[in-house]
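Quick illustration, no need to memorize.
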Amino acid sequence: MSVLRMIALGSLLATGGCMSGESASRTYETVGRIVAPAPALAALVPADARIEKLADGLTWSEGPVWIRDGRYLLLSDVPANKMYRWSEADGLSVFLEPSGFSGPDPSGFREPGSNGLIEGPGNTILVADHGNRAVAQLDLATKKKTFLATHFDGKRFNSPNDLVRASDGSIYFTDPPYGLEGINQSPMKELGWNGVYRLKPDGAVELVIKDLTFPNGIILSPDQRTLYVANSDPDRAVIMAYPRSENGKIGEGRVFADLTALAKSGLPGLPDGMAIDKQGNLFATGPGGVHVFTPTGEELGRIDTGTAVANCAFGEDGRTLFLASNNFLGKIRLNTIGLGY
């Protein structure tokens, strides 16, 4: 057993019993704090909510997705090229290794593993596969991976980072160069931009956004008329909102939230992954943790884990928000319920 595995499993040892979510659970270390400039935050995030550390010892946690049929969470450790499984009953274990690049020579890759994970059709998940520079579908039973998109206009993608699936089957995904050693200067980079793409139901790929420096997290509003994209650039740390038409086309964007000043203040993290509740309130990672915005863009407060948070996802009964926070996995119970529950 590796040292990393022993650390990760050791952090999950129970110290007692408590109620969390739907059933009796272990007691975990509590970290961070709730930063609430607006009293209205309490309607979504209890003022006394506990941020619990579920598992430690990861390199850089990313892309959590709750698997309802099986009641467990999957998440990526992108630099370690592993996909982990966590459940209340079993704790943390390696689900897939390698999770991304599986070739003999990983040189040239900065982060060779899987990144963003979301629910797919049937018993599958959809994977933003950094290491294979692709969008993939993973069968959860067989762990067989099928590549859905690897190129645009005859050129390899940079390193798909995050993705969201629309009700018509379209998959929108971001493609910054974070998976490549040297990032924008990587000799492996074939495209002259860092884009946002739409993988259409017929398999065709179209470029929908080209002018963001580092497009990262991506999510749709409940009515699917707005596409949110996070730009993880410390000089322009913004969350953009783009109108989406019924035919899947994306219009001209507007700045939904500007977190550049916070990024420059030294708070850890940049705009990255996002989750959304049934009312359209956006839980967006950024400098200082997870920022909570109303659908109109008003910031209500922040969930601060004490370190950078790369991504978040609703799970369990829909009132738990899982937090991929740097080297650990955390969770917090909310008063609101995630979209899709």
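The first strand starts at residue 17 and ends at 20.
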